[in-house]
Amino acid sequence: MPATSAPRRAFAVTAALLLLALTGCGYGSRAKEKDTVGIAAGARKTDGLDSVRIGYFGNLTHGTALVGNRKGFFQKELGATEARYAVFNAGPSEIEALNSGSLDIGWIGPSPAINGYVKSRGKNLRIIGGSASGGVKLVVNPDRVKSLEDVEGKRIATPQLGNTQDVAFLNWASEQGWTVDPQSGRGDVTVVRSDNKVTPDAFAAGSVDGAWVPEPTASKLVAEGGKVLLDEASLWPGEEFVITNIVVRQEFLEKHPKAVEAVLRASVETNRWINAHPEKARAAANEQLAADSGKGLPADVLEPAWKSIRFTDDPLAATLRTQAEHAVAVGLLDRPDLNGVYDLTLLDKVRAAEGAPAFDDAGLGVG
């Protein structure tokens, strides 16, 4: 197959159906726009823009965006340009919003970023920075699954066909010597694609034996009596792997680099504040989750979930390349051409102003 080939037909059709369902209700049933922190008096517009539209998920792995929204870091850096926020339920809906021009910048997982880049033949989005690492676990019913070997023959939930955790679990299962059809999920292990909001109920009802899921879903399962059998971080060198990237529409990047730089500067400032004030940051993220969804997380879920995520500006580009290789290996993606998927120019500029070195783009940068 040519290097620029798109994901396999069945996978593309599934993704298209998901997009159709989600876009029919406005890019996800919980998509909202809001301005948490007001514009300061006397502030000036950035790049002459009235607003910058920023997207993220209501997940703790998107904590940079949650905290940056809640504490006003984005609004501060954008001046009189309004930071407008949209909350998404799934990667395909956020990619569609970027493709349609209704979103400018977004926080998103590696698999949707890869698929979005490949499907547009490298013409629509760029990854411009990192945000978070870790925060993914295999949680099981300890009465049914007592060891990693016991996973064989069981029903394991992942959030969505072809999403980041689905690819990771299929790759791990393959490394155990088990065969699973990537489309149907049937095989030596049964993969049940289940929305993260539904998985805790399915787990409590016994319809799945475990789940390979991000936070806070993993900690919700533990609160339901589950046991962490495997932390995905343990499978990666240095226990680091990208779980959340920052992406931008290429057209927006070309026309409004000052606005993109302002958002990146705010992201760096937010991550610095998160790492310096972990308890306050955790509370701020939960406050924003409550504002977005109407309900925050209880302490027995919030605290362990937050501890398992590392917030970093490093895009961890080498791990994204590996994740793409995993998707190819399990049969969910034809070998992609990812050259140019990264443009870290503005992030490196922000870091250089602070005397910090540039990040590695694993040879996948522009130019």
Chart the SSEs and their pairings.
Blueprint: H1 9-23, E1 51-57, H2 63-70, H3 73-78, E2 82-88, H4 91-100, E3 105-108, H5 110-119, E4 125-134, E5 136-140, E6 155-158, H6 164-175, E7 190-193, H7 199-205, E8 210-214, H8 217-223, E9 227-231, E10 242-249, H9 250-255, H10 257-276, H11 278-293, H12 299-307, E11 309-311, H13 317-329, H14 345-353
Parallel strand pairs: 1-2, 1-3, 6-7, 6-8
Antiparallel strand pairs: 3-10, 4-10, 4-11, 5-8, 5-9
Helix pairs in contact: 2-10, 2-11, 6-13, 8-12, 10-11, 10-14
Descriptive notes:
With 367 residues, the protein is of the alpha/beta class. The protein is 40% helix and 17% strand. The chain has helices spanning 9-23, 63-70, 73-78, 91-100, 110-119, 164-175, 199-205, 217-223, 250-255, 257-276, 278-293, 299-307, 317-329, 345-353; strands spanning 51-57, 82-88, 105-108, 125-134, 136-140, 155-158, 190-193, 210-214, 227-231, 242-249, 309-311. It has a six-stranded mixed β-sheet, sandwiched between helices. The longest helix has 20 residues, at 257-276. Residues 1-35 have low confidence and may be disordered.
